[in-house]
Amino acid sequence: MQQAEFCPIVDLTRCLTDLLFDAQQLPAEGKVADYIPALSEVSPTRLGIAVATLDGKVCAAGDSQMPFSIQSLSKTFALTMAMQLQGDELWQRVRMEPSGQPFNSIVQLEWEQGIPRNPVINAGAIVVADVLASHYSASKNTFLMFIRRLAQCQQIYIDPKVYASEQQHGSRNAALAYLMKSFGNIQSEVPQVLEQYFHQCSVEMSCEQLARSWLYLANRGVDPVSNEQICSRKDAHRINAILSTSGMYDQSGEFAFTVGLPAKSGVGGGIVAVVPNYGVIAAWSPRLNKFGNSNLAMYLIRRLAEQLGLSVY
Amino acid sequence: MQQAEFCPIVDLTRCLTDLLFDAQQLPAEGKVADYIPALSEVSPTRLGIAVATLDGKVCAAGDSQMPFSIQSLSKTFALTMAMQLQGDELWQRVRMEPSGQPFNSIVQLEWEQGIPRNPVINAGAIVVADVLASHYSASKNTFLMFIRRLAQCQQIYIDPKVYASEQQHGSRNAALAYLMKSFGNIQSEVPQVLEQYFHQCSVEMSCEQLARSWLYLANRGVDPVSNEQICSRKDAHRINAILSTSGMYDQSGEFAFTVGLPAKSGVGGGIVAVVPNYGVIAAWSPRLNKFGNSNLAMYLIRRLAEQLGLSVY
Amino acid sequence: MQQAEFCPIVDLTRCLTDLLFDAQQLPAEGKVADYIPALSEVSPTRLGIAVATLDGKVCAAGDSQMPFSIQSLSKTFALTMAMQLQGDELWQRVRMEPSGQPFNSIVQLEWEQGIPRNPVINAGAIVVADVLASHYSASKNTFLMFIRRLAQCQQIYIDPKVYASEQQHGSRNAALAYLMKSFGNIQSEVPQVLEQYFHQCSVEMSCEQLARSWLYLANRGVDPVSNEQICSRKDAHRINAILSTSGMYDQSGEFAFTVGLPAKSGVGGGIVAVVPNYGVIAAWSPRLNKFGNSNLAMYLIRRLAEQLGLSVY
Amino acid sequence: MQQAEFCPIVDLTRCLTDLLFDAQQLPAEGKVADYIPALSEVSPTRLGIAVATLDGKVCAAGDSQMPFSIQSLSKTFALTMAMQLQGDELWQRVRMEPSGQPFNSIVQLEWEQGIPRNPVINAGAIVVADVLASHYSASKNTFLMFIRRLAQCQQIYIDPKVYASEQQHGSRNAALAYLMKSFGNIQSEVPQVLEQYFHQCSVEMSCEQLARSWLYLANRGVDPVSNEQICSRKDAHRINAILSTSGMYDQSGEFAFTVGLPAKSGVGGGIVAVVPNYGVIAAWSPRLNKFGNSNLAMYLIRRLAEQLGLSVY
User: Fold this and answer.
1) Which chains touch D (3 or more CB pairs under 8 A)?
2) By the 8 A CB rule, do A260 and B256 touch?
3) B153 and B273 part of one domain
4) What average pLDDT score do residues C19-40 get?
């Protein structure tokens, strides 16, 4: 970590630009998410990266200011909110163990009597959405305001086409939600919970906004710029721990193995990695590998982590 | 991590003694492993802890010099050896993902066509044992010599009663091995592989020996005392990453969540945790919780990590 | 079967009365279904049996004319209708294999990509309900008319309390339906399909009506009284085959083993068994065993089958 | 069944010859079992059928006198023996439910704590082999003598090449056996149980011998020629019930659906079907479909059952 701490901004920007160039030379592999039609319309050649450091500075390269569908990256924001609302009771309703299953598996949920393995697989994130939907009368708006505050930017919106598409192709998530309801682990009505959940997934943000807004996770719960306490130090550690074991779908172990940073991936092609005590890396490229993780975003983050010696292990 | 680095030996020893005292006040919960009779004969009140730091010093308290059955802690040693022998080919035969299943589950092995989820669940460790058994003509002796070299101590032995007991009650491990052989993922004959595996599990070591012998994992692969390169820096990171996501059975996520250190647990009641760039903690108490992890060893390590601020997240 | 064919009505009635007496001496075991509140209100001591023979006569004893909730017995009627509507295409959407799983398991459905094992487990019956709902503009009414025609009785109705209760506690069935929709195996909207399905389950019939209305299955598809061809000879055989391997939940094998007749069970406490070329037995008692089958209805049918030598094997 | 009972021998023989001719016109589909090399050496064009009736006569066509590897057909003989030895206690160690899983699945065995679903899947047959191995000092010889007695023929032998091949490729069966032993459901030593099991599978018989030797199952437990009581009437019913729900691997439901007879299939290409109160059909052709059932043997039995109206349903 020593090297990273002393890496000057000018060098970091050059480093990102070089990595981007390298990434662009790689053969185009993987394919853009198409499980909902609205996601498949993104240009597959988009590529961006941003690094926000604890001093509030942001270095970036490529399409780092272009908004894209954050999808599962939203699970981290929602989890942070739900942890504040429910405290330790939340962990009666969702575990904190890696899943060893595809992100939308229903099998393990059945085995474990409606208690999802962790809050960043779909089933667990639906429980989290239920916490928000059950608590706030205007939960969707509250969620968006929370993100805007973290990103210190009002220009963050829902993509209505993605939202409609999620609703229309949401049968599997509905199955997960109804199965949990049958076990008594969903309190609001399922359609309302799914609305909340799909709303969260449909938010659009850029790499720069994402890197900026996750800084509290690299700084023990405190936003280092506003000095606002977003969550407790303990909860920041906990979220990082969950991301470390479970944030990259069924490639979480390999990501820990090769990169060694808490990170979350979304099928929109974004990956955000937390470097404790240093900052946040956000990368984006729409082509996904078979696990649902962006090929080039993984490449950029892995290379950067190697060059700067960022692994926590 | 800052605090830890400057904690003087005298204070650390006092700290360990105080934690031990606290632990002894707790109500006696959990029970000594009895899946093999030889393990159940240990006194349940044994309790010890040792911390080895990169400067080669060892602080300790309680039964820190008493040998106990290392059981699954041996998986880390064997994995280190197998990684040297097979290089990246090893990862064709075993994955590096968390398992989300009990440590001896056969279900996931069937689903994934005989490829274990990771090398620290039983099935994966049996593949690792096969690597050793297939490579060395005297694999059992080579394994013991490797441990003695790491611990810089020749007085490390097999417990023959435990070894005999493992053999006699090894039907489930035999089932795992034969199932993998049916998928072509075991090269030696199964009885020979199981001999190697049970031999590894039957080694006895003390907390001080364990803490001392794992230092290379806290120091990028280099034994900080002998300056010997035990494994590559990359492999040390990888082993720590695997321990972080999978080292504590089906409580690995919770351990990351509450402690935040790469660690491995054994049903003999030992837990060893790696603190990168600082040292190694080894604790021992025979009573296990329902996940197979020692209650008091977890308690000691969690408290120490909190006091010294050791979480990697 | 010889004995059965020559058993005179007067003797059969006496035989049923005697069996009922024996059943009433047995200790009260099992409990009334309570997964939906409306079902739990039935008196647990109700007990009835009816036998309809191919000559159109009905012998009965006990509460044989009291309507009760037919629940899963409705699956046989709906399957008969769907087989006429879809022909062999139906078997692309649902298999005909025993399930080896609880009646409402979601695990196997996930494994087999949304294709239920057979049409008499819940998932398969929901596909069947989808066939009806997608085909008829007034599918619920058409279903009721079909039953009334078979029973030759207009006084057959839905129990609105059971129907409302099913809707309210239908989360698991909703999960099954949405999971199948996510695999493309449900054509109508899920709420509409569930309405059809719950409507079917909420029909009330008596033992005498049930025995009368299933006669076509004992007579190669032809109602022996009206001489109407209800389904083809082949389809009657097929339905009997499915009931033989899968009609009694996870006790189907044991029922074949001890009784040896095609039969269907419902959690309302009814069981209907087909005796090919002879007639139909319908028995009812609300207390269920752990598999969801009525204890005393099974007892009555087993004893009768033994006395008359009815096993097909 | 009426037609069948009056079908004269001369017509039945002609009927079999015609069916054989039809089968030979069909395109060659499926492939010969190759999971053990010794089985793969059989000529794929072999085709034979035999029907034994309760009067002791045998009609046949094609390769009906050529011995082939009976493989899983042996499970019926072994089950008959074990039922005599253990009585109803046997059903504490193996259930009688259809499995809904491939014939050698280990998953369900794990779920159900080492209790196989039924005695004709591999796991269940290994329990049955354990009963024989634990009871007889010369269990393998006793088994062979039992078959010879039933077939009234001393010229029935083990194929030593198949036996050696089974042993050599028996890892999956060893996994099943050790898993059950870990649950306490195997009494003898596993290698001894597997010897017994592989011995049973390696017996060679012809269609005529098979049809003759199963007659007791079509005649309530009594061999109709020798008048010897082979098993109780109840046990004959039970075996037929098990074969009806589980005898044809994961095509058992479809076989009940299309043929409607208790039957057992073996990967050597043989299928034997029981026609209660009439006789036994045995057919053989080595090419298997994806479920492990002989394509042409199924074809022959289905056509014959249709022509003679043999379905029990």
Assistant:
1) B, C
2) no
3) no
4) 91
